[in-house]
Amino acid sequence: MKINHNEDRKFTLWVLAWPVFIELFLQFLLGTVDTLMVSRISDNAVAVVGFSNQLFNALTTLFATVASGAGIVIAQKIGSRREEEARTVAIIAFKATALIGLVLSVILITLPRPIAVLLQLPEELLPLAEVYISIVGGGMILTAIMSTLGTAIRNTGNTKGPMYTAVGMNIVHIMMNYCFIFGAFGFPQWGLTGVAISTVISRLIACLVLLFIFLGTFERRIGLKDFSLYDRKLFKEVLVIGWPLGINSASWVFSQLAIFSFLAVLGSTELAARTYMNTLESFCFLLGFSLALAAQIQIAHLYGGGRTKEAYSAVYRTLFIGLPLVIINAFILVLFGKHVLGLFTQDQEILTMCASLLWLNLLLQPGKMVNMALGNALNAVGDTRYTMKISLIFMWVIATGCSYLLGVSLGWGIVAIYICMIADEYIRAVLSYFRWRGRKFLRQREEELSKEEAKSAGILSGSPVLTQ
């Protein structure tokens, strides 16, 4: 297959990664500023935001099945020079995820308190949770649309569009947070309710911008009549890759939600500590995750174009760059993390608890980096069932089951829960490494290309191709 060098430059790791990094950094900044501003309301408000975000993350897996699968198929189709099929996949994914998001919005608007009670949120946090879940959860359709549009645009090689959108969304969100929390510039002082409203409005604006970019992201512009497009075969391709991705993602998010529920049983102090640690941990793997996500796009593109040797080596380049960055960031956090936490809370019990967790985070992050890189590489070539299987087994047996046994039943607390999370990451990292070394899906792709070339040669020569 002829190599398009202009397109190759578009799909290099650095060109893909730096806008993704800035986009994710701004999302991290949004979460940090959210937590910092909400901490001015109360530690209870911080716990509600952290708990609610885990719930929302869990629910996003219901449309991530389609969005993630579509993203990989889009990159593969563009790599194999089938842009029209990539365009159709993007449109189908947009419609499917918007419908799922709408259903989730209705459920969260109507049942916020029963959901919080079901997930064992402490009684004193229920009034705040009811307000926050109903408002932010009511905008789940916006989250679904943002996820799909951003994924589709990013997997065409345009990682800058979502980045610029994230810049605008963060500016709007931070300004509105300031106005609603502190009553600045004549705005009402609405506290956590204002934070929720600010979140929904900023996401609505982001959706509109991403939709504008999406309409012109392919060679043939998407028009209103194109939204009636449907191709059963292409949608099946998305689901074949996407459903294990969705279960994999759900496995991680729901296991984290379960762990948050265990922390809620231990007490609001542990729940707040984990929420603050989530914010700090984001700093550690931010650049590494950007590289892993960029590598997934690059590997899917190379795989679609039949360049399997380049696809195989791409993940090792990602690890060579990403692992040192993650380790250095985690070590910096050990040195300065407690001072940063002082900006969020003055509760000495929470600060002492987080100080010990920072050392454990130094062990946790390298395992996460290897999982991100190798897991994304396996997903990029379509080996999504394997990553799903090991996630289902080890996330639930080690990370979740052992967390409950050691942290709650035996009373060893949040430190034991972190140790279980570390063990889960390293076990899956080792298994993913050996799976990638086996090159199963890469060899299958090479065989497919050999057959296609043999068939094409037979047609061009006018001679029949012998088959066994």
Structural features, described:
It is a single chain. The chain is an all-alpha fold and 468 residues long. The protein has one domain (5-440). 84% of the residues lie in helices and 0% in strands. The chain is built from 16 helices and no strands. The chain has helices at residues 5-10, 13-39, 43-79, 83-110, 112-118, 126-138, 140-154, 160-182, 191-215, 232-266, 268-304, 308-341, 348-380, 384-409, 413-438, 440-461. Helix 3 (43-79) runs parallel beside helix 6, helix 6 packs parallel to helix 9 and helix 8 runs antiparallel to helix 9. It is globular. The model has no long low-confidence stretch (mean pLDDT 85).
SSE blueprint and pairings:
Elements: H1 5-10, H2 13-39, H3 43-79, H4 83-110, H5 112-118, H6 126-138, H7 140-154, H8 160-182, H9 191-215, H10 232-266, H11 268-304, H12 308-341, H13 348-380, H14 384-409, H15 413-438, H16 440-461
Helix pairs in contact: 2-8, 2-11, 3-4, 3-6, 3-7, 3-10, 3-11, 4-6, 4-7, 5-6, 6-9, 7-9, 8-9, 10-11, 10-14, 11-12, 11-13, 12-13, 12-16, 13-15, 14-15
Keywords: Cell membrane, Membrane, Transmembrane, Transmembrane helix, Transport
Pfam families: MatE
Protein name: Transporter YisQ
